Amino acid sequence: MYSCEQDLPTDGIDFSEKMVINLLANNDEVLKIHVGKTLSLSDSSAELKIEDAKVTVTDENANISELKYSFLFGGKYVSDFIPSPNTTYRLSVTHPKYPMATATFTIPAVFKSSGATWEDNTGTDSNGFATGTIYFTLNDDGKQRNFYEIALFRFEELGPAWEVMRVIPENAEIAADPIFNPQGALILEDAGFNGQSKNLRFSTPFGSNFGSPYKYLIVVKSLSQEYYKYFKSLEDYRLQGGLFSDPTAIYNNIKGGVGISAGASISKDTIR
User: Is 0.90 topped by the overall pTM?
Assistant: First the structure.
């Protein structure tokens, strides 16, 4: 029996440590920034966090805010402000052991939509049970490329809590080749409906909550282009990174480092 495993030489690989920065910002919460380091193939260290970096964010009016490290949120640098829509910020991370890492991120304008509605008994699932449909409309701005993330939740009285729902698009052109982020939210670009009002439909499970209709929450994010590219690259990597395939590179926009800096604006709509 022959083995296809082979030890590859690593002594000729030129490796230099860089900081790893991860920031996905939005207009609904303070900034939470992970700062870590890259690892060489021979590094067995389990600790990736850097807790003593200097992390600053500068707004369009040259106001500088320094973020402090916190053990909350899994150990991240946390701001004392919430970023504003339609604003671009500059991120800078410095540490004496690593090259300076910089990036920019933009919080897009909040998207325009019409109120969401829900209708029961609009179809059946694969087991023949009745399903419902959530409807809402994206009013897309035709002056620029736009990107969206759509997440659905259902309120469970026994929690009580909002439970994440599987996003099942009913629009044929979206359902044919959907893109999802790791949390299961749908990622969209406006290439097929630029400047139009796009009517969207999503299936919901059958049934009710103790005889009353369920309460649904629709969370739509208007994404910066960097945000969209990052999650699309993650999905491409998941789909193409097989044993006999060359894996797709994960999108990176950190100068002097590795990682992602991107922004989104959030809009929420509740259906009872």
Answer: no
